[in-house]
Write a structure and sequence with these properties.
- It is a single chain.
- The chain is of the alpha+beta class and 266 residues long.
- The chain has two domains: 122 residues, MutM-like, N-terminal (N-terminal domain of MutM-like DNA repair proteins, Alpha-Beta Barrel), CATH 3.20.190; 124 residues, Helicase, Ruva Protein, domain 3, CATH 1.10.8.
- The protein is 24% helix and 23% strand.
- The strands form three sheets. Strands 1-6-7-5 form a four-stranded antiparallel beta sheet, with helices on one face. Strands 2-3-4-8 form a four-stranded antiparallel beta sheet, with helices on one face. A two-stranded antiparallel ribbon has the order 9-10.
- α5 crosses α6.
- The two termini are 27 Å apart.
- The chain binds a DNA duplex (16 and 16 nucleotides) through loops.
Amino acid sequence: MPELPEVETIKRQLEKKLPGKEIEKVQIIDCPNADKRIRALSGIKILKVRRRAKTLIVDLNNDKSLLIHLKLTGQLIFRKNAGKERFTRVLFYLSSGGLLFNDMRKFGFIKLVPTENVEKEIHEKYGPEPFDKDFTLKIFEEILVRKKKSKIKPLLMDQKVISGLGNIYAQEACFIAGIKPGRTAGSLDKKEQTRLYSAIKKVLLSAIKFHGTSFDSIYVDAYGQPGGFGQRLYVYQQEKCKRCGQTLKSLRLGGRGTWYCGRCQN
DNA sequence: CCTTATGCCTGAATGC
DNA sequence: TGCATTCAGGCATAAG
């Protein structure tokens, strides 16, 4: 399930590949959430690839941008020889190679919006990027005070509050910070707030370094390669604590599977 | 304002 | 073996 590190990995790879390339043809194979107008992009060139939260933004030279969200099972893969694969939903034929939008469960979407509206469509809807300078410790503390009754792990997953964290990295951050995921935001003391703030950045940076998590073998990067962070997970879908060896506890928070160590997290 | 539930989907895993 | 059931989850939306 692509979260910030996975989408960032794809973004960094595609921004080296796509700019300057021309879209020769777009084929929508089976994609209920794809804007039909993308079929008319023949002859349009790709200018830039960006990321905001978990959404990829592909700016085009016709003042429009593609907004691509992979949701749970989406893949965006660059292939030298374009061809339909098992779950290919949209196929972009490029001047060299092809860009495949694969999505087993069809939750993902591709929108086409005027580039000038990207701000409105995306940026305004989401909370701060964890690596932007506006995401300061002070801002984070204010969030925790404002949402003091929320449970901390579902809060970290709320894109309107902070963008980019999903079910994996929210609970990994809680582990690294030594905080139980079911604690309320308001119950964190100053030290815990600081630890969690650092843990968010730490886990995301590390995951980006290893090209993300391919735990479920669904996520792959823009070259079809799995990420290497899966074996470095502390708690997500793990049985025993990597630090103390104790059997992890599991529960559901916000409807999502959640794991934590009763000894290492307080 | 809040929290929790639902729908969108399909494949893998499980149960009888 | 096969068929039905359950589960996974991002996130918009509805309901409580």
